[in-house]
Design a protein that fits this description.
By secondary structure, the chain is α+β, with helices and mostly antiparallel strands. Helix content is 25%, strand content 23%. Strands 1-6-7-5 form a four-stranded antiparallel beta sheet, covered by helices on one side. Strands 2-3-4-8 form a four-stranded antiparallel beta sheet, with helices on one face. A hairpin with a 4-residue loop joins strand 3 and strand 4. Helix 5 packs across helix 6.
Length: 269
């Protein structure tokens, strides 16, 4: 599933390409799973709306819309596991598993493609703030307060979108490694110094991944169809059995609640 850096990269790319364009018409496919709002609500909000901008909130892409006289709300896109937003010329072949096409005044088409149909499309009138706190801007004291008293493993807490939205497996593992913290440690038992290190490493990892266009470890590509490069900087994620770059100890992988955790047994305490 695309995480914060990948979604940020896609949203930034879409903003550069479609901000200021107008949606003339909308086609929605017959599959109901991707539609979190009613089809008529989506079409009513999108058709005739100008795209004021595109941004990221958590793991969601947010299209800010404006009508002829007032704001028309926001188009919310969650990419799920395999979703993509593609800007295409109308003559380009429509890819299998295309579930929505927004035809733009510029002559281009904005297409939502999702083979596994875990992605979601919705529209809202009010400002969309996401389910949790933004990891890139959260202050240290607020960050520490999120985990105070929690008995869950710190890896699970990092993945809880109601606490910090946007963080997933890749960046939780990488941030915990850089902070020197084992993923199964109880979140509520971490010291202030340990949480301070985690706060710093999480923001550093996420910003570095954004600069490198995210991690292409599956089928992720950005709005231009290009792969990211942060997977070349992974220190533990998907490196099971390989030597730690710091101490040469083999990287371990364990499972908790069906999720894999990658860590160095020596560097992480």
């Amino acid at each position: 599933m695309p995480e914060l850096p990948e979604v940020e990269t896609v949203a930034n790319g879409l903003h550069k390409r479609v901000a200021g364009d107008r949606i003339e018409s909308v086609w929605l496919g017959p599959k109901k799973e991707p539609l979190k709002s009613l089809p008529e609500e989506i079409i009513g909000a999108l058709e005739g709306a100008k795209i004021r901008g595109v941004r990221r909130v958590g793991k969601h892409i947010v299209f800010d819309l404006r009508g002829a006289r007032s704001d028309k709300g926001h188009w919310i896109v969650h990419l799920g596991m395999t979703g993509r937003m593609v800007v295409s010329a109308p003559q380009e072949a429509i890819a299998p598993h295309t579930h929505a096409i927004a035809r733009l005044a510029s002559g281009r088409e904005l297409r939502f493609v999702d083979p596994r149909r875990f992605g979601r499309l919705s529209v809202v009138r009010e400002e969309f703030t996401g389910p949790g706190t933004e990891p890139l801007t959260v202050g240290l004291d607020e960050f520490i307060a999120l985990f105070r008293g929690r008995k869950t493993p710190i890896k699970a807490a990092l993945l809880n979108q109601k606490l910090l939205h946007g963080v997933g497996n890749i960046y939780a593992d990488e941030s915990l490694f850089r902070a020197g913290i084992r993923p199964r440690r109880h979140a509520g038992r971490l010291s202030r110094d340990e949480l301070k290190r985690l706060h710093k490493s999480l923001r550093k990892v996420l910003n570095e991944a954004i600069r490198l266009g995210g991690s292409s470890v599956s089928d992720y590509v950005d709005a231009d169809g290009d792969e990211g490069f942060f997977q070349l900087r992974h220190r533990v994620y998907l490196r099971t059995g390989e030597p730690c770059f710091v101490c040469k100890t083999p990287i371990k992988r364990i499972e908790l609640a069906g999720r894999g955790m990658h860590y160095c047994p020596k560097c992480q305490k």
